[in-house]
Write a structure and sequence with these properties.
heterodimer, A: 484 residues, alpha+beta, Dna Ligase, domain 1, five-stranded mixed beta sheet, 23 strands, 29% helix, 24% strand, globular, B: 311 residues, mainly alpha, 0% strand
Chain lengths: 484, 311
C-alpha cells in the first residue's frame, strides 16, 4: 500500500508539508512525490535501514532511569521536515539580530548595566537571577562575546507564524544529531539527494572550529582548542565526542587539565604538560571551577576562572552567559533588541505572562488550565505544566510553587504547534515538531546552521519534544524552491 | 596525546585481543573434544584455568560441564574475561575516546558488541558455535586491521599495539602453562598425545607456522621451544617482547621500561626450555607472567593518568 497524501489529515493544525486545502507545499513537492511512489515494503525496509544505521553508528543519548544509566538509540523518523529557502533566509536574519542583542545585553549586565539604569529591564529581576555570576562582573571576554553558541527553539502556531520559544545560552546541545540525521538520510535514501535541491549542513564543525580558534588569547600560534566534557555519564556525551572528533580537537575531562602557577591552563599528556588556549566547555558554570563555584565539584578544574579572568584562556560559552537563558529574561528580548539595536524584533516572542507581575500572576492562576506554565531556569521540559493536558492535582501543585516564588515562573498560551507527517507503521500521521537552529558568534561574523534540529513528539497528540521525554527527531531540509 | 586517552587506547586493544584469544581457545577446544574419547578428554576445565578464573568459577558452579563452562566463558556476567565482558569493556572504553578512534573502528566495535550480546544463543549451541566464534575472531582482525591502516602511527598507535601484544604474550604463556600441565600423559591417552599438542598450537594459530619453521613432527620439546623462542612467529613470547621494546623505544620517559623488557628478553632467550620438566616449566612461566605484569605497571607509571591523590 502506497502513501496517498490525499488521505493525510492535518486536523486543523498547520502542517509543514500539506497545506489547509490538502495540497503539498512547494518546497515539499518532490519529497511527497518520492514517498508516494514507495511501496509499504520499501518503507519498512527504509525504516529498518535507518534503525540499523543508528544502532551501528552508535548514535545514542543517555537517560537516567531509577538510578541507573541507559544508553538509548536515537528515535528517528525517515520523513524529513522541509522549509523553503526563502522563508529560511528571513529566519536566519532574525536569529542573528536576536543573538547580537543578547550578547550586548549580557556584556551590559556585567559592566555598566545601562539597560537597568534606563528603566528597560527591572533591577529586581537581575537580583533574583540564579544564573547571574558576580564572579564575572567587569570581565572582558574577546570581542565582547559571551554567548558564542546559541540554540534557539522555534515553533509555529496554528497560522504558521514562526516564534522563538526560548534561547539556550548555557550549553545548548543537539547539533550532532542534526548532522547525524543527515548522514543517516544519505544512507537510507541516496537517490533523494539527487532529485531534491537540499542545502548542505556539513560545514558546521569547521565553522565551530574557526569560531573557537578565533577566541585564542595567543593569536600568533596555532591555537590548542579542546572540548571539556563532564564525562561518559553525561546525557550529551555522544555529542561531545562527535564534535571533538569532527573538529580534530582533544576531548578532555576536568582531571586532564590543570591550572599552573602562571595562571595558564595545561593538559596532561603522555609527554608532559601542554598549554590550552580555548576550551569549548560542556560543563555548567557551577561545576567549572571548585575554587570559584561549588567546592565539591569533581568535574571542573581548580583555578579555571582565575585563568579565564586574566585572559589566559577562552571559555566558550563564557561563564555567566546563562543570565540571559532564563524564561523570564526571555520576555524582555524584544525590548532588548529595540534598546541596543534600535530595531523591531524580526522573529516574535511567544506572548509571555510573568508571574512576578501581580496582575499577570493572577491571570496565570485563573487560567492555568489553558496555559503552558514553565519554571524560569529548568531545561529539558522538567517542571513544565501543560494546562489543557494536566490534572487538577498537578495544577494545584504548580499554583503552590508559583505562589512560593513568583519570580521563577512564566506562562504562555498553549500553542497548537505545527505538525509534520511522521510514519506510524507505514502510514504517515501528523506529529508536532519544533526546530532548534544553532547560531555561532565570534564578534567578527555570525553563522546560522542551515535549518537545525527538528525534534518530534513521537506520541500522537503530544507536545513534548524533549528526548528525555519521548521525543525523537527528523532530518531538516532547507529546500531551494527556485532551483531547477 | 592525553595520558587518559593513551591509557584507554591500551585497554581497548587489550580487551579486544583477549576476546579474540578466548574465542580461538574455545573453538580449538571444541574441535579437540570431538576427536578425543571421553576418558581422555580434559573437557572444559582447563579453559577456565587458562583465563585464571578457577576460584571465582567454583564459587558459583559445581562442575565443569560443557553448558556451564561455555556460558561462563562466552557470556558469564561474573567472569571479567568472558568474551561478552571483554567486548563490552572495550566498547565502554572506546566510547570515552570516540573522538580519537576512526569512525569505522568504533562502528565495528559497536557492531561486534551487539552481535555477541544478541547472538550468544548461537555460541552456546553446538551447531552455531563455530560460525559465532569465527565472526568474533574475524571482527577482531578487522578492528586491528582498520586501526593499523587508518590511524596516524603516532604515540596513540604505540599504546594500541602495546596493549594488544602484551595481552598476546600473556595469553601464550597461559595456554602453554595449562595445556602442558594437563598433558601429563596416562597410558591410555598416549595415542592421543600428538593431537593434543597440535591443538595447543592451533589455539595460538601456530600450527601451520610451526610446520613451516620447525619442519619436524609435533612433539613436546619442539612445541615449547617454538611458542617460547621463535623469532619469526608473531605470537611467540620472545617475538612479542622484541616488539614491545621496539614500540616503546621512540617514546620519551621509556628508559626504565626498556631496561625491564631487556631483562625479560634475556631471561626468555637464554633459557633452555626444552629441558624443563612439567613442574619446573610451570614455575618458570610464572616468573614470565610476573615480568609481564611488571612491564604493564612500569608503562602505567610512566604514561597513564594518575589518580588525583598521587598527582
Amino acid at each position: 500500500m502506497k502513501i496517498d497524501w490525499k488521505r493525510y489529515q492535518t486536523n486543523g493544525f498547520f502542517d509543514e508539508l500539506i497545506d489547509g486545502q490538502g495540497k503539498v507545499r512547494l518546497h515539499g513537492e518532490k519529497l511527497a512525490q518520492f514517498f508516494s511512489k514507495l511501496s509499504g515494503e520499501e518503507l519498512r525496509t527504509a525504516r529498518a535501514v535507518a534503525d540499523l544505521a543508528i544502532k551501528e553508528m552508535g548514535i545514542s543519548f543517555t537517560v537516567y532511569d531509577e538510578g541507573s544509566m541507559i544508553d538509548r538509540a536515537w528515535p528517528f523518523d525517515i520523513i524529513p521536515r522541509t522549509i523553503g529557502k526563502n522563508e529560511w533566509q528571513g529566519i536566519e536574519t532574525g536569529l542573528k539580530q536576536r543573538v547580537e542583542a543578547l550578547n550586548l545585553f549580557i556584556d551590559d549586565l556585567y559592566h555598566d548595566q545601562k539597560i537597568i539604569k534606563d528603566g528597560v529591564f527591572p533591577k529586581g529581576l537581575l537580583e533574583k537571577s540564579v544564573n547571574f555570576r558576580k564572579q564575572c562582573v567587569g570581565i572582558n571576554p574577546p570581542n565582547k562575546i559571551w554567548a558564542h553558541i546559541c540554540g534557539s527553539d522555534l515553533v509555529r502556531d496554528g497560522n504558521g507564524t514562526m516564534f522563538v520559544l526560548e534561547d539556550n545560552l548555557r550549553v545548548p546541545s543537539g547539533v550532532s544529531y542534526m548532522l547525524e540525521n543527515r548522514s543517516v538520510m544519505k544512507r537510507v535514501f541516496p537517490e533523494l539527494f539527487e532529485q531534491v535541491p537540499i542545502l548542505p549542513v556539513d560545514d558546521y564543525p569547521s565553522q565551530l572550529f574557526d569560531m573557537l580558534a578565533a577566541m585564542t588569547p595567543r593569536p600568533h600560534d596555532r591555537p590548542e582548542v579542546v572540548v571539556l566534557t563532564p564525562g561518559v555519564f553525561n546525557s550529551a556525551y555522544f555529542e561531545h565526542c562527535y564534535l571533538a572528533q569532527e573538529m580534530g580537537c582533544e576531548l578532555v575531562e576536568g582531571r586532564d587539565l590543570v591550572v599552573e602557577k602562571d595562571d595558564c591552563v595545561y593538559m596532561r599528556t603522555i609527554t608532559g604538560l601542554q598549554r590550552v588556549d580555548v576550551i569549548y566547555r560542556r560543563i555548567d558554570d557551577l561545576y567549572l571551577d571548585p575554587e570559584a563555584f561549588l567546592p565539591d565539584s569533581q568535574l571542573g578544574v581548580p583555578g579555571l576562572m582565575r585563568a579565564w579572568s586574566k585572559g589566559n584562556v577562552a571559555l566558550v560559552n563564557a561563564p555567566g552567559a546563562g543570565v540571559a537563558d532564563d524564561k523570564v529574561v526571555y520576555a524582555y528580548v524584544p525590548d532588548m533588541i529595540k534598546y541596543y539595536l534600535g530595531e523591531e524584533a524580526k522573529i516574535a516572542n511567544v506572548p509571555t505572562f510573568k508571574c512576578m507581575d501581580e496582575k499577570e500572576c493572577d491571570h496565570v492562576i485563573k487560567n492555568i488550565d489553558k496555559l503552558v506554565v514553565k519554571p524560569a531556569n529548568e531545561s529539558g521540559g522538567y517542571g513544565l505544566l501543560i494546562g489543557p493536558k494536566s490534572t487538577k492535582k498537578e495544577q494545584q501543585e504548580t499554583i503552590a510553587s508559583i505562589k512560593k516564588d513568583p519570580r521563577n515562573w512564566v506562562a504562555q498560551p498553549t500553542l497548537s504547534l505545527s505538525t509534520v507527517p511522521t510514519l506510524d507503521g507505514i502510514e504517515p500521521d501528523g506529529r508536532h515538531v519544533d526546530l532548534r537552529p544553532f547560531i555561532l558568534s565570534s564578534g567578527k561574523d555570525t553563522k546560522v546552521t542551515t535549518g537545525g534540529l527538528t525534534r518530534v513528539a513521537m506520541n500522537k497528540g503530544s507536545l513534548v519534544v524533549n528526548s528525555s521525554q519521548g521525543g525523537g527527531s527528523k532530518d531538516t531540509w532547507i529546500v531551494d524552491e527556485e532551483a531547477k | 596525546m592525553l595520558s587518559r586517552v593513551g591509557e584507554t587506547l591500551y585497554w581497548v586493544s587489550r580487551y579486544i585481543e583477549r576476546a579474540e584469544n578466548v574465542a580461538r581457545l574455545i573453538n580449538v577446544n571444541n574441535m579437540l573434544m570431538m576427536d578425543l574419547p571421553k576418558g581422555v578428554s580434559t573437557g572444559w576445565e582447563p579453559l577456565v584455568d587458562i583465563i585464571g578464573a578457577r576460584k571465582t568459577y567454583l564459587e558459583t558452579h559445581t562442575d565443569f560441564s560443557e553448558a556451564k563452562a561455555l556460558r561462563y566463558l562466552l557470556v558469564g556476567n561474573d567472569n571479567i574475561s568472558s568474551i561478552l565482558n571483554s567486548i563490552s569493556s572495550a566498547r565502554e572504553s572506546a566510547r570515552t575516546i570516540r573522538d580519537v578512534i576512526p569512525r569505522d573502528v568504533w562502528e565495528e566495535i559497536n557492531t561486534l558488541y551487539y552481535y555477541v550480546k544478541d547472538s550468544s544463543k548461537e555460541g552456546l549451541s553446538k551447531r552455531g558455535r563455530f560460525a559465532f566464534l569465527k565472526t568474533i575472531i574475524d571482527s577482531a582482525h578487522q578492528i586491528f586491521g582498520a586501526l593499523d591502516a587508518t590511524i596516524n602511527h603516532d604515540q596513540g598507535y604505540v599504546f594500541i599495539r602495546f596493549g594488544s601484544i602484551i595481552e598476546r604474550a600473556d595469553m601464550t604463556s597461559r595456554i602453554l602453562d595449562i595445556r602442558s600441565e594437563s598433558l601429563i600423559i596416562s597410558e591410555e591417552a598416549k595415542p592421543y598425545e600428538n593431537i593434543q599438542w597440535i591443538s595447543l598450537l592451533r589455539s595460538l594459530s601456530a600450527y601451520q607456522m610451526y610446520r613451516q619453521q620447525m619442519g619436524v613432527r609435533v612433539q613436546r620439546s619442539d612445541v615449547i621451544e617454538f611458542v617460547m623462542h621463535s623469532e619469526i612467529f608473531p605470537r611467540s613470547i620472545l617475538f612479542c617482547l622484541y616488539e614491545l621494546k621496539e614500540l616503546i623505544s621512540p617514546l620519551i620517559k621509556s628508559l626504565e621500561l626498556i631496561k625491564l623488557i631487556d631483562e625479560t628478553i634475556k631471561e626468555v632467550k637464554y633459557k633452555d626450555v626444552r629441558a624443563l620438566k612439567n613442574g619446573y616449566l610451570h614455575d618458570y612461566i610464572d616468573t614470565i607472567q610476573i615480568r609481564l605484569a611488571d612491564i604493564h605497571n612500569a608503562l602505567a607509571e610512566s604514561y597513564f593518568l594518575k589518580p588525583p591523590e598521587e598527582i
